[in-house]
Queue: 2 jobs
Job 1
Amino acid sequence: MIDMRFGPQVCGDLTSAASREWLVPDGLGGYAMGTVGGLRTRRYHGLLVVPGETPASRQVGLVSLDPAVTLPSGARVRLGAHEWSSGVVDPRGFELLERFDLVDGLPRWRWRIGAVVIERELAMLPGRSCVAVVHRLVAGGPVRLELSAACTWRDAHGERRADGPTPQVEAVADGAVVEGAYRLAGPGWAPEGQWWLGVHHREEANRGLNADEDLWYAGRFVGELERPGDTVSVRAWAGRLDEEPPPAAEIVEAARRRNRQVVAAAKPADDVDATLTLAADAFVVRPGGRSVDVVAGYPWFGAWSRDTMISYEGLFLCTARADEGRELLRAYAATLSEGMLANTADTGRVEYNTVDGTLWFLHAVSQHVTVTGDTDLGDELLPALRAVIDAHVAGTRYGISVDPADGLLAQGAPGTALTWMDARVYGVPVTPRTGKPVEVNALWINGLAGLAELTELAGQDADELWRRHGQATASFRERFPSPTGWLHDVLDAPAPAYPLGGAALHDDDALRPNQLLAWSLPYAPMEPDEATLRRVGNGLLTPLGPRSLAPDSAEFVGRHRGGPAERDGGYHQGTVWPWLLGPYVDACRRSKMSVDDVFIGIEAHLTEYGLGSVSETADGLAPHAATGCPFQAWSVAELLRVRRKGQ
């Protein structure tokens, strides 16, 4: 895998160290997460973040274990790091870091205090909400090590304050149980019990959100490190509190062994491929130990069907997880209603609110059968997939229906944003894209052809599907090309001066990346034209992927920054989306254009933000600083998929 190693000039510089984040998932939807320098910059950071019934319903438990070393001289040196609402950063343990490594996906810190060197490793027990933190004396000594446990128990999207109830901490033999929800275990537990007031999260401040909280100092663990090789370890776990997990060192070794196996099973072609394979593993989870699902992004997203299906090929078919993929596709098929796939979003409710999620599902099933030869699954799901087509032809929710005049798919209803460009500001869609969006119709045509192939594999008549495919393809080729030299983004859209349903319609020719699907999908409606792709690339492409809108557009927003309204307003108005690099590369390859240089920037990005992973978004203007979730499923999946296709 890519060598993730940072020395004192990164670790000791707060801006550099705090802007690089690591993630260790538990396989259930929970995680441990923080920064290279040890400073918590988000409300979501913690050593034990516990999953709930849905992937997004997480609780923050153990926040930090702050090390303090008492040297033979009697001097006490604190190695933790906190930022306070006053603006002060204290302690500043990152200044003593001589190295940070990410080894087999697991973080390792190495502090030097003169001749004394102490190392920390962290891992989660695969398949259980349990973290192990191991401290090892590497050189020098003897020293005493204290580990101060800062705790809370709250929703991951919020904060807890001292003016509320005091956390209940019950002493047990080797530590404590906090709020009856999770247990801490380690040597020499000494209860304390006081509030740490005004802990500040700089990234939440940057996002315009409440940035301060209070933490409960529950107590400290104390151990002696007499000689090099001695360890002091702490474990924290939720769920079955009486069922003690394995020793901490065994948890670290088990996690490392498992991560190596995950990578080896995928047979990576190079170090980048191996790194992306392990990154992909973080998103495949079993909430509550039940059916497999996909976390759209860490640390704040849960499961979204559109993200899951766009990510499907990269996460499952490129990583030797076809059996789990089969299980996932069957489970999602069971949610179909009126021809639409459920979008079981972060609300925890089953919602049907996308026009493209179902079409991406058709694509995922088709690719699964094509890649694996699993015709049994195709036969099993065929009736449900045929029902999807019938429902779209007849018309379903939100005005989603096939226009009989041209065979293209239209969509839109007041107040809705049904495509992947679904941002809202104060409940009002920023880009409703009512009418016939280009990528929706590319997916529709792709879905018709893919389903026709599955139908023929099952020995059934596919003539009607091929007829619809032919009509829609002919209409697409006739109507979507624009005089601008690229494709219209939406056909038959309400004119700006008219409300939805008004008399005037127009064809929107804004330069957006959605048209890439018209050339990139397996059954794409158009053959790519090099001149057109160069126009699209010249207007949209950045080192981290295509922008969502060209910079010369009046609506272009170059910085994805500010409070929620500002960020949502610019979400799809110029912000870069790395996942779109997949369709761009596919289209270029079909046009016989070289893409050897396209991956340079995004591969370098693997060490810049979410370590070993790919961000959700980035600024549309240079230097294209990453924004959004540091670890995003479809960004990783699409990069992994198109790199593999080119090998």
Job 2
Amino acid sequence: MSLHPWSVLGATFVIALSSSANINAQTNVPPTVKAPMTTMPVPPIAAKSNWSEVRHGETVTDDYRWLQKKEDPKVIDYLNAENAYTQAMTSGVQALADKLFAETKGRMKETDLSVPVRRGKYYYYSRTEAGKQYGINCRRLADAKLNYDEKAVEEVLLDQNELAKGQKFFMVAGTSVSPDDRYLAYLTDTTGYRQFKLQIKDLKTGELLKDTAERVTSMAWAADNKTMFYVQEDATTKRSDRLFRLILGDKANEIYHEKVEQFSIGVGTSRDRKFIQLQAYATDTSEAWLLPANQPQANFKSVLGREKGHRYNVEHRDGSLYIRTNKNAKNFRIVTAPLTNPTEKNWKEVVKHDDNVLVGNYEVFRDYLAVTEKTQALNRTRIFNFKTKQWKSVQFNDEVYLANSAGTPEFTAQKLRMSYQSPTTPPMVMDVNMATGERTILKQQEVVGGFDASKYEARRLWATAKDGVKVPLWAVYKKGVKFDGTAPTLLYSYGSYGISTEATFALSRLSLLDRGVIYVQAHIRGGTDLGERWHEDGMLMKKKNTFTDFIAAAEFLIQEKWTSKDKLIIQGGSAGGLLMGAVVNMRPDLFKAVHAAVPFVDVMNTMMDASLPLTTGEYLEWGDPNNKAAYDYMRSYSPYDNIEKKAYPAMLVTTGLNDSQVMYWEPAKYVAKLRAHKTDNNPLLLKTNMAAGHGGASGRYDAIKEGAFNFAWMLSQWGITE
């Protein structure tokens, strides 16, 4: 982790100020940092500069606007100074962080192999080696019966460790092999900004082709093995808006531009590989186009056009389209229609709408249809046999769990690859025989040193929201914890974009549970945990339900004596960081400490600037602040705009300099303003990874170190030092 800290000598915090540091705070020139010399760590005090803008007749000021100038050395100076202060303030927890890192690393099987999956005549998999940060992508030729042959020669497609050499950050975002198995297209990012470069490797010769493209977000091969379609994002807004057709060795041509700012596009291939699929999507509307994969020079044809409020996607099987649609179906349904005329009058219902069941991912095979559904915050999978017309359900008995499709690329597959885990069950991969329902466990994540699930317990809880709605939670803890209000508790949530909170297993979390910590997640409104209405009731002009649901969850844990105010720490990232900022403004007395990761806290300044990445597409989730009513509502909860002179909990705010989703300056400005207003003596720390983006460190060991530091800081707030 490269944080470029300032010099910290013992307990002395040393800053070399530039000559501009004494400029009066009321001038328009932003000073760098003003921090007095002292024998104790003293936080950097970000200077103020004049900036104002009139919005809906109101003059809005932003004292820390200068921090948005990433190219200004004074901004980097400030971030480095904050890192140095954080390092000085947390020197006492570093030993514990190192211990947590060692514990997690010690549980991890460092040299490991993923479950191979067949695509065509090859089995593809990735493996890791001890001491290496990144995975190695490989394949082996199947045997004559298309079974996996571990004796076949391994072909290394990408050694990510070699590609990452000399890079502070490295990420492979996606791979795609041509239908004839010869070419590998892959996307890489070396900054953390999620701007991916397309490269194509000839797997026969091992050479990279000259065909490349910048800012690629999705890709698909045509059936001729020489034509590729890819989507490129805008360099400024990061909206995926342009589709290109590339013939290897030739210049790529733009063939579609999505002009509507609320929409992004993506390209892929149908499971039977007969069609290239182009999808345009906004929060409330979508449109799908198809192009025969064997006619790459033809034109894409829209399936059902674009109708405001209609969200749909399609798959093809034997001349019919299987359409997942929300038309007259809030939680979606699945219909089939002839490829030649898929209009609504020709629809035949396959999966009916249910107010209590969200129809999610679906996979169409030659002989089966597999549908993942969610009800009461739990997933289930149902499989339809086209021959027998019968359904089979794949369900699990745990009170809380996560079961999902794990990727079955072959159209003729007879077994569905699934993954399963729970807070007390390490992730496993299984094949489900789609005819009989028989399950075969192929692999379960190994916990090195042993793991006894019987020592832990996971439970479903229900809190009552401010308006009387029941909000589900899940909790996991080590048996023997006392429910008398004394247990340290970590409460996490997200609550935006329809993203559900899932009951997962985590190796690193065991270090908390073994120290007596209760871990809880809340399925607050804004996700689709209880269906599409759950999302709608936590967005736009109902967004505050997200925050009050979380507060209700915290109050429930306290009232039921799971914990107490001085033992409750909360955590959230990105839009969940907005949640953190909002609830500590509303109820700062309710929480002992807060970890806000890459937090979306400067809502108004970001949403009022349409030139920033991803902003206009967010209008349908948060509201368009150019509308006065939406502006006033968003302004009333924006964390940065509602900081007041009062006591706040201890806070750790983490971010990445190259974050493309939530710019680094949002948490930086938030901390600067909070520090100028808060009336307490609780620690307020900003930690910026100077070589990463929204997802933090890219290497697996570096990522564990970041998480270990965050947990060690939390444990120190509970008074747990070992």
